[in-house]
Amino acid sequence: MRKVFLSTLFMLFILSSGLFIAIFSSSPVLASEAVEDSWTTLAPMNQARGHLGVVVVDGKIYAIGGGLAFGANTENNYLTANERYDPKSNTWVTLTSMPTPRQGFAIAACDGKIYCIGGYTYNEGGGIIPGLSVVNEVYDIASDSWSAKASLPVSKGGLQAQVVDGKIFVLIEADSTLFMYDPSADLWTKKTDIPGSGNGLVSALVDDKIIVTARFYSTTEIKLSYDQKILIYTPKTDTWSEGKTAYPDLWYNFVTGATTGIYAPKNVYVFLGGGINAGTMVYDPVGDDWSDAKAMPTKRSYSGVGVVDDIFYVIGGFATTGNAPLAVNEQYVPLGYHGTGTAGSDFDSDSPVDNLVLVGALVGVVAAIVVIVSLVLFFKNKGKHTSYVSEVVT
User: Tell me: the pLDDT tens digits for 106-121?
Assistant: First the structure.
């Protein structure tokens, strides 16, 4: 009987300990502690390049195309490289190359596919002016393969893309136009033009609204004076509105991205990499105001930005001195970040799933304590019983 009791207690102890270990091992294992408004240099790309396309799908970052120099009309300048970066393992893998070599194209991810639209490419006619592509090539992540879809309706440069409700909105800097692409129907539709002529256009998505900043010229005839504006596009109503004037010293060689509000407040971050304009600026869409943040370590232009778990990864670009292509990959943790690691998930105690985990952990701890106390009492009583029997026999 005693053996059965001991065996039962032992099994309870093993089970409760296993439950405790299993529950807590399901929490994120963090490589390092994230510090807000800080930069970290990570593994570089295999191919150095600037003016590339960068997009995030399922927590992994894809870096596609780009060039060895900005806009130079030489055949070897335009690249087809396709690499994927895993923030959790800090590693890159090379994937099937994009069919058409180009840089400065619009890139967007939708339903497990990556769309690379338009951009600059080699001009076979010669001269110093690069060619303009209208191709719309789609990368299927699952099959690691490419296919062609309906071409961009216009041949223009300076492209940005954002995805809202399964539709891809392509903003064109060259003539301030806006097109919407429906991947399911493979169809393009013209939308309301961007209200203003400018350059250096970049965009970010916040709450299904596209926030655009650029240098907008006061006149279209003589492009000498300009205003740095914030414009906000609402896809549902196909309308534009204007925010406060941005800082006047933003230059054309910057990139931007936005946080989602899960691990950091919803803000748009503008990363400037050139000369005296190097720095990081933060736009608050709710307060419609700007603030400063820490500049990226490597000054560069025409890099790409990916955002994973509200943490930024600024990738590639051209060096501000000499314009050499770069493979650099620098991670930025935004202001107000409250996650638990550089790329892991936050342990949110308000989540129903996580509350169950906490309850389960508590049950496991209590069960382990009960088993241990029972064992102590059992052996203590056993000692008393043995002593009593000894006295009776004596």
Answer: 999 999 999 999 999 9
Half-sphere exposure of 67 (CA within 13 A, CB side): 23
Look-up: residue for tokens 């954002």? 162
Parallel, antiparallel or unpaired: strands 311-319 and 300-301: antiparallel
For residue 12, name the pLDDT band (cuts at 50, 70, 90). very low
**CA-based angle 64:258:324, to the nearest 5?**
40
Q: Residue 281: phi, psi to the nearest 5?
A: -125, 145
Beta-ladder partners of 38: 333
Global pTM reads 0.79
CB 282 within 8 A of CB 292: yes
Q: How many residues does the chain have?
A: 394
- Are 168 and 159 in contact by the 8 Å Cβ rule? The answer is no
Give 58-101 pLDDT, tens digit per residue: 999 999 999 999 888 999 999 999 999 999 999 999 999 999 99
